[in-house]
Design goal:
Layout lengths: L5 H21 L8 H8 L3 H4 L1 H24 L1 H21 L3 H20 L1 H8 L3 H32 L4 H4 L1 H15 L14 H20 L2 H20 L13 H31 L4 H7 L2 H12 L1 H8 L1 H19 L8 H27 L8 H33 L5 H30 L22
Length: 474
């Protein structure tokens, strides 16, 4: 199969991996617009309702790094299939839930399955595409799923909740998950890792998983005790990695300038861009008066423009100008879009004040994100591809939690300080401040990228995986 039609089979395998990755990514946002319906149906208290989102994010963010390492040890396809199966099963349970506790537990299980499945995808792609030009194109496809997933989730969540019910925000995963599982078994090459004989740093895994989980929870819930505990555990993890014979996250990866720079830029970039989506959804509903469905549709231009950029010309620009230049230029466009949004007002309109910045930002993100993903995997050996993939996904989740928490808090504080003013005007003032801070995150990302990332990183080609066999031919 794969040997007779290698190009076609490899393309289909890429499509399966990206479809599964898209499903996992959009699940972090698809439920957002369904929360009021879930609260009314299952009787959530306001404080408990947040756990429908937080339970997923805590499990997903906390387990990405260990999931990537497990892929290196036991085979990335095996970990991917196991995670996808768990995610799909948990989606069924969530959709059938008639109790608040069952829904929260199933959301946590979704996060575990999502981490296992998505942590290894980028590592599988860069190994599957060793040729630099083909790899850049494949990473562009993958980056589209990462960049557009949240926007697509908002659209799908609004449509499904309004047309059917909140249960379908989970049921929609079932056909996608089942088809992806069946196709992945047939077209994704099986790989054999060295297994436990290569060593698994169990203590390091416990330390980093607890640190990231507490960090994501602390940022999302403004729990300072959790943040302090996360910082202590993270410091202990770094000490452990320096001394462990077989570290979970080899510190040698951070000696690769592009890897270190890309992960730091990722935190700042996602903090600004994901936080902006949260703020914009509130502005459209609370100030401009759009309902859930129209709010979701309002984001539709973003994934469309991202698709044009990331799938159409991002790889060509990176080949001609270098990924660093494309990254910084793309982030510059995102900054322009965010600065334009600092002008929103009560008297504003979607087509005049929101749509133009969305188009500019989509264009910039579509160019920047594939370049950043490629840099994050630069010079990474095949044996470390899984953990490097898990690392960039982890920093992405930390950035998302950081940006959403910081921007939501600042916007709310600014609105509260203007309590005597017109409420909609006070809301708009809070959102303007949040957009300015988002632009600040991106400006910091540009400054960091310009200072840390090399102008022309050395082209890389991961060596072929040992003991690779095609499914069904082992």
């Amino acid at each position: 199969m794969a040997e007779n039609h290698p190009t076609r089979s490899r393309g289909l395998a890429l499509a399966v991996l990206c479809a599964a990755s898209l499903m996992v990514v959009l699940d972090s946002s698809i439920v957002a617009v369904a929360l009021p319906a879930i609260q009314a149906d299952l009787g959530f208290k306001p404080a408990g309702l947040a756990w429908v989102v937080t339970a997923y994010l805590v499990a997903f963010g906390g387990l990405l790094l260990i999931s990537g390492r497990l892929g290196d040890l036991f085979g990335r396809r095996r970990v991917f299939l196991g995670g996808l199966g768990l995610f799909t099963t948990a989606s069924l349970v969530a959709g059938l839930a008639t109790d608040a506790g069952v829904l929260v537990v199933s959301r946590f299980a979704q996060g575990v399955g999502g981490a296992l499945a998505s942590a290894v995808v980028l590592g599988m792609i860069v190994t599957m595409y060793p040729e630099p030009r083909a790899r850049a194109k494949a990473i562009g496809v993958y980056s589209f799923t990462q960049a557009a997933g949240a926007s697509i989730g908002l659209i799908a969540g609004g449509a499904l909740t309004q047309a059917l019910s909140w249960h379908w925000t989970f049921f929609v995963n079932l056909p996608i998950g089942v088809v992806a599982l069946v196709l992945a078994v047939r077209v994704v090459e099986a790989d054999r890792g060295p297994g436990l004989r290569a060593g698994l740093d169990v203590l390091g895994a416990v330390l980093v998983t607890a640190a990231v989980m507490l960090g994501v929870y602390g940022i999302s819930s403004y729990a300072w005790g959790a943040l302090v505990a996360a910082a202590v555990l993270l410091a202990a993890f770094v000490v452990r990695q320096a001394k462990a014979r077989t570290p979970l996250l080899p510190l040698r990866l951070f000696r690769i300038r592009a890897v270190t720079g890309a992960n730091l830029v990722m935190v700042l970039m996602v903090a600004g861009m994901l936080g902006f989506q949260f703020v914009t959804a509130l502005y459209l509903q609370q100030v401009l008066g759009l309902d859930a469905l129209r709010t979701g549709v309002a984001f539709l231009p973003v994934p469309l423009v991202i698709a044009v950029a990331s799938l159409g010309f991002a790889d060509k620009l990176a080949a001609r100008l270098g990924p660093r230049t494309v990254l910084l230029s793309g982030l510059g466009l995102v900054i322009v879009g965010l600065l334009l949004l600092t002008r929103v007002s009560v008297a504003g309109s979607y087509f005049a004040d929101v749509l133009p910045p969305l188009l500019v930002m989509g264009l910039g993100a579509g160019a920047a994100i594939p370049a950043l993903m490629g840099l994050a995997m630069s010079d990474v050996a095949a044996a470390d591809a899984g953990v490097a993939s898990g690392l960039i996904n982890t920093t992405q989740q930390v950035g998302a939690a950081l940006g959403t928490a910081v921007l939501a808090s600042l916007a709310a504080s600014r609105t509260a300080s203007l309590g005597s003013a017109d409420h909609r005007e006070a809301l708009a003032a809070g959102f303007r401040l949040a957009y300015g801070v988002s632009a600040g995150f991106l400006i910091a990302a540009v400054a960091l990228g310009a200072g840390v990332l090399a102008r022309r990183p050395r082209p890389t080609a991961l060596p072929a995986e040992p003991e690779v066999c095609v499914a069904g031919q082992a």
